[in-house]
Write a structure and sequence with these properties.
alpha+beta, Outer Surface Protein A, domain 3, 2 domains, four-stranded antiparallel β-sheet, three-stranded antiparallel β-sheet, 13 strands, elongated
C-alpha cells in the first residue's frame, strides 16, 4: 500500500542562507556558495522561515527514495558551505618510491610500480589537493567533487593483472571528515 505523503524537513542553521527557485537550491555560507538543480526529481521542495520541506504525494517507491536522496544532498550542501569536507589518502608502496605532483587540474603519479609513464587522475570542481610526504589531502565545499577526486586517484593507482594480496601498492582513502582545518 502506498503512503499518502512522504516528507522530510531540514532546519537551516543561522550562519547559512538558503534560497529556492522552483527546484533549484542555493546555499550560501562562510566557506562559499553551492547551487544544485533538482528539476529532474518528481518531488516538491519549499522553504518557510528557516525550514526546508521536501515531500512527495502518493509516491511510488522511486519518488519515496528520491525524497531521502534530495534531503541528503541539501544536508551535504549546508555542511559544505559551513565546514567543508576533507579526505586524506595514504600513499602505499613497497619497492619503488612514488612521487605525486599536482599540475593544473590533474594529479601526476610518477614511478608507480616502476612504470616510466606517469599515471594521471583528474581533479574535479574546485577541490584543493595538497601533498604532504606520505599523505594526499583533498579539501573542498562540494562533497561530490571531493569524493570523486579521491576516487579518481584510487582508481588511477589500481594494480591490474597481479595478485592484490601481494601487490598492495596504491593510494588509498584512510580518513574522511567534515571541516577544512
Amino acid at each position: 500500500m502506498r503512503a499518502v505523503e512522504i516528507s522530510k524537513t531540514i532546519q537551516i542553521p543561522d550562519d547559512v542562507e538558503v534560497t529556492i527557485e522552483g527546484r533549484k537550491v542555493t546555499a550560501k555560507g562562510t566557506k562559499g556558495t553551492l547551487t544544485k538543480d533538482f528539476s529532474f526529481a518528481p518531488v516538491s521542495i519549499e522553504l518557510r522561515e528557516k525550514v526546508i520541506r521536501i515531500w512527495a504525494e502518493w509516491p511510488r517507491k522511486k519518488e519515496a527514495s528520491l525524497v531521502g536522496t534530495i534531503y541528503s544532498h541539501i544536508q551535504n550542501m549546508i555542511t559544505g558551505v559551513r565546514k567543508g569536507f576533507t579526505y586524506k589518502l595514504k600513499i602505499v608502496f613497497s619497492h619503488f618510491p612514488v612521487s605525486i605532483k599536482v599540475k593544473d587540474k590533474t594529479i601526476l603519479i610518477e614511478n608507480f610500480t616502476g612504470e616510466r609513464n606517469p599515471r594521471k587522475a583528474k581533479i574535479m570542481g574546485d577541490s584543493q589537493v595538497k601533498v604532504q610526504s606520505e599523505d594526499i589531502i583533498i579539501q573542498g565545499i562540494n562533497l561530490e567533487d571531493v569524493s570523486q577526486t579521491a576516487a579518481n586517484i584510487e582508481q588511477a593507482t589500481r594494480v591490474k593483472r597481479k595478485d592484490p594480496r601481494v601487490f598492495l601498492d596504491g593510494i588509498y582513502v584512510h580518513e574522511r571528515s567534515e571541516g577544512m582545518g
